[in-house]
Amino acid sequence: MKNITDSFLSLGHWPYAGSFEFNTDILSTNLINLGVVLGVLISFGKGVLTDLLDNRKQRILNSIRNSEELRGGAIEQLEKARTRLRKVEMEADQFRVNGYSEIEQEKLNLINSTYKTLDQLENYKNETIQFEQQRAINQVRQRIFQQALRGALETLNSCLNNELHFRTINANIGMLGSIPEITD
């Protein structure tokens, strides 16, 4: 506790009030603060962050599996469409004289609709994966921020007590008493 206090104020020895001064070494005080915050984040946030990431990973994997199943269904539809296409081609050979252009148009429409369906399913899968990843990242960021804030508040509350306040006030009063008055 004394190390934390000394990192903010260089008080030296407390026996006399004239030794009170601020620590103007920004680098050492910022490094200590950064070390404390990082230590709290690592110690308290490690398990929660791991659990969050594992849960998100499972959800994303489930989404991928669902998308793969949808893709499998689309492939089955494609195979059915190909079978139908073969059937249409056989009928086209039989009725080539009577309606060749009409049958070709039906074939193209069938192929286009199948490819559109596949494209839509692939886009849906990619959007789902991207959405789940972004949502996982946002949740992790929010949890880390909350834990960092909670840890910083706990550190501040544990460092600031009545004795420290009284000692600081007495030291400041002593410094103000030793300053000569300035008259114009």
UniProtKB/TrEMBL annotation:
InterPro entries: ATP_synth_b/b'su_bac/chlpt. GO terms for molecular function: proton-transporting ATP synthase activity, rotational mechanism. Its main location: membrane. Keywords: ATP synthesis, CF(0), Chloroplast, Coiled coil, Hydrogen ion transport, Ion transport, Membrane, Plastid, Thylakoid, Transmembrane, Transmembrane helix, Transport. It is a single-pass membrane protein. It is found in: Membrane; Plastid, Chloroplast thylakoid membrane. Residues 71-98 form a coiled coil. The keyword Transcription does not apply. The chain crosses the membrane at residues 31-49. The keyword Transmembrane helix applies. GO terms for cellular component: chloroplast thylakoid membrane; proton-transporting ATP synthase complex. F(1)F(0) ATP synthase produces ATP from ADP in the presence of a proton or sodium gradient. F-type ATPases consist of two structural domains, F(1) containing the extramembraneous catalytic core and F(0) containing the membrane proton channel, linked together by a central stalk and a peripheral stalk. During catalysis, ATP synthesis in the catalytic domain of F(1) is coupled via a rotary mechanism of the central stalk subunits to proton translocation. Component of the F(0) channel, it forms part of the peripheral stalk, linking F(1) to F(0). In plastids the F-type ATPase is also known as CF(1)CF(0). F-type ATPases have 2 components, F(1) - the catalytic core - and F(0) - the membrane proton channel. F(1) has five subunits: alpha(3), beta(3), gamma(1), delta(1), epsilon(1). F(0) has four main subunits: a(1), b(1), b'(1) and c(10-14). The alpha and beta chains form an alternating ring which encloses part of the gamma chain. F(1) is attached to F(0) by a central stalk formed by the gamma and epsilon chains, while a peripheral stalk is formed by the delta, b and b' chains. Belongs to the ATPase B chain family. PANTHER family: ATP SYNTHASE SUBUNIT B, CHLOROPLASTIC (PTHR34264). HAMAP family: ATP_synth_b_bprime. This is ATP synthase subunit b, chloroplastic. The lineage of its organism: Eukaryota, Viridiplantae, Streptophyta, Embryophyta, Tracheophyta.
